[in-house]
Amino acid sequence: MLKPSRRGVTALIAAVVMVPLAAATLARKGAEVTLAAVETDVPVRVYGLGTVEARVLSKVGFTVAGRLVELTADAGDPVSKGAVLARLDDAEQRARLAQAMALADKARAQASNARVGISKAEATKLQKERTSDRRVSLTRSGTVSEEVAGDALTAAKVAAADLRAAHGETSLAEATLADAMAQVELNRVLLDRHALTAPYDARVAFRHREAGSVLASGEAMFTLFDPARIWVLAHVDEAASGAVAVGQAAEVRLRSLPGRSFAGTVQRIDIESDRAAEERRVYVACAECPPNLGEQAEVLIDVARLPKALLVHEDAVSGLDAGQGRVWTVEAGRLALRAARFGLRTLDGRLQITDGLPDGSRVVARLPAGAREGDRVTVKQ
After folding, report:
1. Cα-flanking dihedrals φ and ψ of residue 135, to 5°?
2. pLDDT tens-digit profile of 17-37?
3. Any idea which architecture 31-41+306-380 has in CATH?
4. SS3 at position 30
């Protein structure tokens, strides 16, 4: 059996002596803890995940049925207000318009003849009235019999009746002309509806049908959107949505451009939340965002900026509920558990301590395992 060397025995004795000595030293010094520091100019942001959407999105189509014979726009094309996007076969409608115009010309001629008839009836009436007046005056001198004068008076009355009839015929002819002109205008409007035009400066998102297709009235032909009015529909956790307000600045990040971010502004907050997902819909306008409709986007909303704040991670808070909880503090070199009130929460899960701690206490950011209230500790810088 080998005998231990003198050096080994000495090392063993030293180890036996040092272990109790180290334990005693640690007991006097206490476990090391990290304290939460007061920070300045702390941004408070709320995260949302959503998609790029168009604020103005329109499905446009023909208001009349027909066969598609011409297409001048496709998905992705920019179009100006009033530009023709597509046309339907309009041969039948052109024939209807020509027929209506012919009927209008006929009605116009009839109205003109009726007005001439009024002039003729007025002249006849005037001539008959003058003749009647002369016959009446000659009756007094005995030159003309009363029977002749009576016939002249009757002829004058007949001429007046003919004039009234001419006015009636003219009114009827003018009404017929107005109806014919209205038919012309109606058929012209229907003809114009065979051409589909852009209602505003837009970009084509989808083209739903191809040339040769037979379309029903009101069927969507194109989906258009305004590329100058793009926003992100973000879904924000209800628990964090209380601090979000219209007008707040935001940062938008797209999946297709991971190295870039775009400035945005909160434009609208839906009153009704998603009951299943427990999320609120927040719309963030983004003037510089590419119009990649439907693309996933991340949104960071700046809800506040704290000039000076004492922050502790929520993992270091016990019993957190309704903005209150308990945190560990260092008081006179020993651990204590204190109730505190909290304000805003940062995106990385830290809570702003607003009230509840005694003067002179310092909040523990990280607690060593097995620590208990009253233990002596040292502060780790």
Report:
1. -65, -35
2. 444 444 444 444 578 888 988
3. Beta Barrel (2.40)
4. coil
